[in-house]
């Protein structure tokens, strides 16, 4: 029996079980920088040609951003808030915010998230434009990570800093600039000279997984090889079924019998409804094609691994709901939503949305929509989560608000709505109902258990007074 005191970490042991376990011993950044070009190329190829690779990226972007993560300015007077909202409608909700004039800010959010999921990272450059009355002098240029000059690596700069993989740092290790190509380095008219761009004009979005990590990795990196092999496996199975679908016939001759006298045309093909009389000494046999056994089970296991590597659920990746009941579907949805929350509130909102908002406020001040030098806080509303059982979930949400466990403001945001806009619309609806002399049960001013609204609050006070008078007489 082995002495327990001699035990060590088995995963660090050398021997037959670990002889094929290859490790580099390099830093996280060195591993990423060395592998990133090839990882990006393969991730893009899978997103173009592999249905699961493409659908995984689509599912992540659609669930994280949806129709957009909405901003609400806070801490302002009503007049100031109205002006900044007006500026946002002119800029963020129009294509004026896009350098290419194709997307509004919510479309840019989805483009950034899709690029981060597919390529591992995304670069957004601030472009200051000439002031024109009625326009916000700011555009956002979304760039692929290829624009970052990976070949730019220098040490012992004049200021004591260094450059690593196209990112410049000062002597304290703070980022101060990015070195970007003027044009995409893989275009036929590429210019392989890079320019220094101050960090104040750059947003670099990627999922941070390790301390000090400077570049991002495609979300599909752990699943790429499995996805590629599964693609080959499916092709092989398809070819196998094609071969199995070929109806083969074999005719055997008996050498012990005399040859057939007269003319005989050998049977070369089988046709529908054919009746063929074979001469004596010839027998017919048919090929037995192999069956594709275990295909469904193996495919499901592989796709579950691919989904886990990408951070999505198996059902979201494949659309296969055949083995899902209400409970398992709900649990899978909740776990997927935790990943979505992480991508929203840890990656996209703080690194892209918040910084883009700061640029917007600065540009809005230049256009006269805010005070110069002002800092405007913002609250973001993520897209709503689709309810699995709306009748129960809406009631539960209502009870949370009524019992004080959640605010009305938070409840509205959880539904993907802007609380200020909902409140304004409720006021307008109330005025419209009153003007029309209507008291619908949907009006939140009234008790939802009543079929009609109470006539007047003063009536209740009078009823109370009468009850008190009666008690005194008794």
Describe the structure.
By secondary structure, the chain is of the alpha+beta class. The protein has a domain of 195 residues. It has twelve helices and eleven strands. A four-stranded antiparallel beta sheet has the order 4-5-6-7, with no helix packed on it. It is extended. About 1% of the residues have low confidence.
Mean pLDDT: 85
Task: Give the percentage of residues in beta strands.
Answer: 5-15%
Low-confidence region ranges: 450-454
What is the overall shape?
A: extended
User: Mind telling me the C-alpha Rg?
Assistant: 34 Å
Q: Which structural class best describes the helix and strand composition?
A: alpha+beta
The number of E-state strands comes to 11
The count of helical stretches stands at 12
Spatial strand order of the main sheet: 4-5-6-7
Series of secondary-structure elements, N-terminal to C-terminal: HHEHHEEEEEEEHEEHHHEHHHH
The helicity comes to: 40-55%
Q: For the report, how would you describe the main beta sheet?
A: 4 strands, antiparallel
Features:
single chain, 474 residues, alpha+beta, four-stranded antiparallel sheet, three-stranded antiparallel sheet, 12 helices, extended
Concise structural overview:
The protein has 474 residues and is an alpha+beta fold. It is built from 12 helices and 11 strands.
SSE layout:
Elements lengths: L27 H22 L1 H14 L5 E5 L3 H14 L13 H15 L1 E8 L9 E6 L18 E3 L2 E3 L5 E7 L12 E5 L3 E5 L17 H22 L3 E5 L28 E5 L8 H16 L3 H5 L7 H41 L10 E5 L8 H13 L5 H7 L4 H18 L20 H17 L1
Antiparallel strand pairs: 1-11, 2-3, 2-8, 4-5, 5-6, 6-7, 9-10
Helix pairs in contact: 1-2, 2-4, 5-6
């Amino acid at each position: 029996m082995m002495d327990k005191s001699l035990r060590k970490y088995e995963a660090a042991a050398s021997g037959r079980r670990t002889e094929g376990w290859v490790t580099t011993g390099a830093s996280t950044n060195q591993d990423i920088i060395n592998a990133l070009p090839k990882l990006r190329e393969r991730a893009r190829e899978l997103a173009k040609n592999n249905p699961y690779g493409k659908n995984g990226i689509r599912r992540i972007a659609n669930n994280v951003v949806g129709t957009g993560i909405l901003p609400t300015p806070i801490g302002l007077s009503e007049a100031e808030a109205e002006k900044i909202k007006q500026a946002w409608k002119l800029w963020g909700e129009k294509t004026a915010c896009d350098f290419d004039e194709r997307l509004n800010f919510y479309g840019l959010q989805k483009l950034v998230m899709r690029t981060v999921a597919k390529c591992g990272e995304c670069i957004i450059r601030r472009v200051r434009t000439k002031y024109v009355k009625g326009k916000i002098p700011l555009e956002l240029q979304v760039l692929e990570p290829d624009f970052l000059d990976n070949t730019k690596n220098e040490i012992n700069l004049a200021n004591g800093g260094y450059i690593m993989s196209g990112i410049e740092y000062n002597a304290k290790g703070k980022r101060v600039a990015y070195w970007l190509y003027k044009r995409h380095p893989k275009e036929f008219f590429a210019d392989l000279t890079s320019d220094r761009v101050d960090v104040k004009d750059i947003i670099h979005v990627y999922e941070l997984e390790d301390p000090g990590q400077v570049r991002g990795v495609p979300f599909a990196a752990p699943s790429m090889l499995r996805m590629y092999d599964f693609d080959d496996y499916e092709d092989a199975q398809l070819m196998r079924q094609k071969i199995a679908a070929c109806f083969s016939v074999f005719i055997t001759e008996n050498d012990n019998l005399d040859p057939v006298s007269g003319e005989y045309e050998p049977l070369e093909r089988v046709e529908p409804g054919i009746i063929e009389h074979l001469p004596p000494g010839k027998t017919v046999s048919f090929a037995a094609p192999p069956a594709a056994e275990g295909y469904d089970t193996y495919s499901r296991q592989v796709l579950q691994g691919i989904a886990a590597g990408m951070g999505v659920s198996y059902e979201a990746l494949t659309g296969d709901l055949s083995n899902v009941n209400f409970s398992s579907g709900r649990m899978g949805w909740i776990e997927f939503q935790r990943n979505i929350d992480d991508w929203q509130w840890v990656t996209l909102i703080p690194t892209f949305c918040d910084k883009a908002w700061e640029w917007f406020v600065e540009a809005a001040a230049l256009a006269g929509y805010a005070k110069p030098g002002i800092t405007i806080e913002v609250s973001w509303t993520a897209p709503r989560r689709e309810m699995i059982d709306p009748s129960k979930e809406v009631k539960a949400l209502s009870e949370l608000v009524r019992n004080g466990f959640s605010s009305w403001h938070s409840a509205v945001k959880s539904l993907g709505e802007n609380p200020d806009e909902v409140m304004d619309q409720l006021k307008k609806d109330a005025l419209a109902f009153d003007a029309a002399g209507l008291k619908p049960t949907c009006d939140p001013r009234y008790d939802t258990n009543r079929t009609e609204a109470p006539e007047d609050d003063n009536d209740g006070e009078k009823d109370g007074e009468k009850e008190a008078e009666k008690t005194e007489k008794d």
